[in-house]
């Protein structure tokens, strides 16, 4: 399993979401870190950025996948890409 790094902005976004949604997002991130193939249908490479997008319902998680999985941003569908 890869280590997961959450910057302050991602932690703030998780705190502002409802508790069940926040837990679901964290679970999906941990599932991806443990086995990237398990989330194959919900992960896409972003065009123009060296990052990937994980879809969790109506929420999107922008991450960089390397030795450490860096969570860059978390937000609702269309607004996270701004």
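Q: What amino acid sequence fits the structure above?
A:
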């Amino acid at each position: 399993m890869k280590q997961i790094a959450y910057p302050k902005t991602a932690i703030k976004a998780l705190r502002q979401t409802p508790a069940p949604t926040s837990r679901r997002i964290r679970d999906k991130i941990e599932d991806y870190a443990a086995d990237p193939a398990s989330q194959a249908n919900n992960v896409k490479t972003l065009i123009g950025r060296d990052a990937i997008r994980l879809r969790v319902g109506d929420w999107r998680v922008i991450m960089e996948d390397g030795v450490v999985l860096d969570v860059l941003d978390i937000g609702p569908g269309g607004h996270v890409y701004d």
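Q: And what stands out in the fold?
A: The chain is about 30% helix and 35% strand.
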